[in-house]
Amino acid sequence: MSITSDLMELREETIRKHYAAANAMLEGFDHTPRVAAALEPVAPERSSGIGTRRRFRSTTPGLVTRSTARPEGVHLLDRIAGADGDDPLISPSQAAVMHGLRRALGIALAIGEAFSDATPLGELKRANLQGSLGADRKTEFAALLEGEALAVGYVFANATAFLLAAQASEVTVDVGEVQEVLTDNAQLALHGALWELDQKLALHASDEPRMVATVLAFAEQLMERIALRAQNGARTGAFTSANWRVEADDLTLRGFTPATKAKGTVLTMQFKKPHQVVGNHIAKYQSMRLAKMLMAYDFERRLNPFAELGGFIFTFMGDGAPGTGKTTLIQMMAGMIHEYCQNAGYTFRYQNFGIDNIDSYQGKSGQNAKAFVNNVLDPSVIGFGTIDDIDQIAGKRGDRQSSAGQQEVTAVFMEAFAGANTVVRGNCTFGMFSNFPENVDDALRQRAGARFLVDGPQTREDYIDILALLMGKKHDIPLGDHELYAAQQIQKAVAASFDSHNRPKEPGLLEVFDRVSSQIGALDTIAKMGTYLKAIQEADPRFTGRAIKNITDAVKVRAMDFELPDEWMEQPELFLFKPYDEKAAMIEELRRPITVEMVIQEINRYADSEFRYADKSDEVAIEAMVRDFGRQEEAKKRWLEGKG
């Protein structure tokens, strides 16, 4: 793989020249703990009632707060070798951990060297050694040393977790919080980390699986602690602004972000073909187009031309009654992307976030949701994430019936789908599906940029098609006077579906549409359409600026309402493997002009869905109150009868 424009290569010889220093650290060094307390073995009592001697505490003024802990020898190689009991030979997993730690230290030290070269730190270090460092630069020197220490410590933990991931087993270890995070300089930061790792291994590594689990858990905790520390204004810009690639390990370092391997999930679902999705014409059409849009992603530029030109669907919501085909739609879209990725040799990652990801432990549900989002967002894969039955998974804010875990999930999804740090590269899409979208938090629902109404079969032909499809071929019943699947011809069906939105369908919205049209005439200018939007907002205050953004995004999608030729997917060299600028030009040539009809149809489609959700939500609430009042009346009646 070639190094992309936003990556810099960390050369193998640069890493290996630090192996000697890494070996020395693993073999042994002395370290006096500054923050954490050393694990002290309990000494046997000398006699009944006489305990062990307490640590000496200085009474000299000014030295009371200074640590009196003695420096301790840290011999990590011996500690790791001792994890297998009495076996004199080093096992493969022990050797893997030793080599992984040395490699991680070499990479971390190489990053530290690059940090020094990219900042005045290298010059300041030389001046300090020569005794010529001016007092006016000592503050800058200390700040840059702290930045280097944070970068080196994080890269060490990040590389360790990445390189040893293959050694992980089902065994897990809770190592607790990492405390010895030192930022005086890079070497002290590594000494502190290795000293505390040695302490954790002494406590938890009773056998090889637990030894590996301890190292991995420690690396995760160290990464989290350093990333939090780096948020406090440290001079780490030279580290966070540069992305590094270690080709031999397939490792990419992107600031304080955990590294991941571009692995796809093994899909075991039953894929569906488009003709097997009966009805749902617009939803099916948009899913098919979105599958091809994703394939336009450029791994070199890490950007999709559709995301830059407009018309890319980053989030969408599919809603409909139970049994109308939401699962079938997911199976069709995942199957198409999977097939396209196989043709192109791309890595495809599909992941579903389900109710089993809601955890009773505080904060765990949010962590699960964040991990799900990050896995799908991984810029080195084509990603498709689904959240089925989102009304059960993400709780409404302020809803007393929602658990703390559901509230955490809502907060994570809102930030991920349209937060301040959201970056849409165009390599992935998220689909939220629900039978009861009115139960989804309003702000989260509005973060769905597109709406797929999954209404299932509608016409007589649809019902004949679905009956024939589900009956299969193991029968002798004649088909009769019917052309099988002709009604599912997508272009004809979609055109009719879009035309049906020239006028609203929900009664509340239809009243607004007719009233505005009678007052100002045909909605054929920006001003008139803006007046219509304001009238909708007056009827439903939840119709905000985000709704307008979603509508305009949908209009841009319609402008990209063309089918990428199947040959482009089947023969990747025709399109997928072309340079980014050439792909963007090919897409630009196919763009359609935006018309008034498109805008009106998309306003009506989106507003119809919001009115439908609001009406259902209000009706459900009213029905619940009616049942409560009825129960109260019946209870009062029985109570009075009992008294009489």
From TrEMBL:
State one Pfam family annotation.
Answer: AAA
Domain spans labelled ATPase AAA-type core: 320-453
Q: Which domain of life is it from?
A: Bacteria
Q: Which Gene Ontology terms cover its molecular function?
A: ATP binding; ATP hydrolysis activity
- Protein name, per record: ATPase family associated with various cellular activities (AAA)
Lineage of the native species?
Answer: Bacteria, Pseudomonadati, Pseudomonadota, Alphaproteobacteria, Rhodobacterales
Which InterPro entries does the record match to this protein? ATPase_AAA_core (IPR003959), P-loop_NTPase (IPR027417)
For this protein, the record's SUPFAM superfamilies field holds: P-loop containing nucleoside triphosphate hydrolases
